[in-house]
Amino acid sequence: MRNTSLCRCAYKKLGSKPPHFLIDVMAISRLIIENFRNLAAVDLEFDHGFNFLVGDNGSGKTSLLESLFYLGHGRSFKSTVTTRIIRYDQPHFILHGQIREQRHQWSVGLQKLRKEGNTIVKINGEDGNKISDLAHLLPMQIITPDGLNLLNGGPAYRRAFLDWGLFHHQPEFHAAWSGLNRLLKQRNAALQQNYDYAALKIWDMELAKLAHQVSRWRADYAEALRTEIEKTCRLFLPETEISIGFYQGWEKDRDYAQLLEHNFERDKAIGYTVSGPQKADFRFRANNLPVEDVLSRGQLKLLMCALRLAQGEHLMQQKNRHCIFLIDDFASELDENKRQLLAERLRNSQSQVFVTAITPSHLRQMQPEKSQIFKVDKGTIKPLEN
Ligand SMILES: Nc1ncnc2c1ncn2[C@@H]1O[C@H](COP(=O)(O)OP(=O)(O)O)[C@@H](O)[C@H]1O
Ligand SMILES: [Mg+2]
């Protein structure tokens, strides 16, 4: 519970700042970077519509998207080892962002030291904030060429997709989800200690309560998202029938506490809890076959984009909050026509969008009303006149 109430509290407090200006979408208006990958010192003001980053391979385009993602998640989408992200031979990296949304402004800072593992997060100059506070402020969707694991990777990627939505839609989700993971870990440790079931039962009752709650939220959210996903798929993949199903991780309508008791001896023999919300999946099929068997890479990319756009759109409709879209290597795998479709859907989302490309010609289809182009060259980034 502590986490969520802290988040809400921080959010409320920050939200009561006096108005300085008025913009209708949530946007990162300025970003200062120190020693993040090959970006030694960067200070940029962004458009709250489209921001294009153009430059050669290895110039620093993905690194800039990675720094934005890091500011919103406290982790990278590329490396799990944070020390690799700090610029070679430097003791730390620092990110500082200014966020604007309607009448509010937040100043957020994140620092990571090479020596100590802790991440220091500041919001409006105050210490003691958590990464989840930043994540609440900055809903983001990332689309990268590696992002196809959402479709052809394991269920963990799709659970993370659903849980991202619940984190932003359901204020009590984060605490329930953390509690569930803690109890599962404890249970798995206990299974290896040769306890008999009576010793576990009391934990299992609590675990089952959280499992049912989290699964109900996931199922409802998956269902709510279905319409939005189907709408986008009809536009992006009109020739293919995409079907969607949610699996909660154990047999539908079966009481989870009873199942845990029933499976105890098997779980003990294997050494971990085999069924449960930790096995949930959000499954996609194309023409009733596994998507990765039917769709080309370009079509998989479009489906992945459709999922991420639909999720952003749903957040907008339900919570009146805009996502920030980070799109790495926009042009890869997509023909002219498909680029056009994706560009149009992004324009309609009216969100702040960051797009990387190797040459400006790859961005021809975008043509947004409001945009800023940046030239990225060996770790320096400069705005170009439009
Ligand atoms: N920790 C680091 N310190 C300094 N440079 C790094 C670090 N990690 C990666 N790089 C370099 O940063 C450069 C930029 O990479 P990247 O942002 O992926 O380029 P782009 O997306 O423009 O092709 C690469 O040349 C890479 O070798
Ligand atoms: Mg790149």
From TrEMBL:
GO BP of this protein: DNA replication; DNA synthesis involved in DNA repair; double-strand break repair; SOS response
GO CC, alphabetical: cytoplasm
Molecular function via GO: ATP binding; single-stranded DNA binding
Gene3D superfamilies hit by this protein: P-loop containing nucleotide triphosphate hydrolases, RecF/RecN/SMC, N-terminal domain
Segments forming domain RecF/RecN/SMC N-terminal: 28-381
Pfam families: SMC_N (PF02463)
The UniProt record lists the keyword Cytoplasm: yes
InterPro entries registered for this protein in UniProt: DNA-binding_RecF, DNA-binding_RecF_CS, P-loop_NTPase, RecF/RecN/SMC_N, RecF_2
Binding site for ATP: 55-62
Chief location of this protein within or outside the cell: cytoplasm
Swiss-Prot/TrEMBL keywords: ATP-binding, Cytoplasm, DNA damage, DNA repair, DNA replication, DNA-binding, Nucleotide-binding, SOS response
Compartmental location: Cytoplasm
PROSITE patterns xrefs: RECF_1, RECF_2
Family: Belongs to the RecF family.
The protein's role, per its UniProt record: The RecF protein is involved in DNA metabolism; it is required for DNA replication and normal SOS inducibility. RecF binds preferentially to single-stranded, linear DNA. It also seems to bind ATP.
Entries under HAMAP family matching the protein: RecF
Protein name listed in UniProt: DNA replication and repair protein RecF
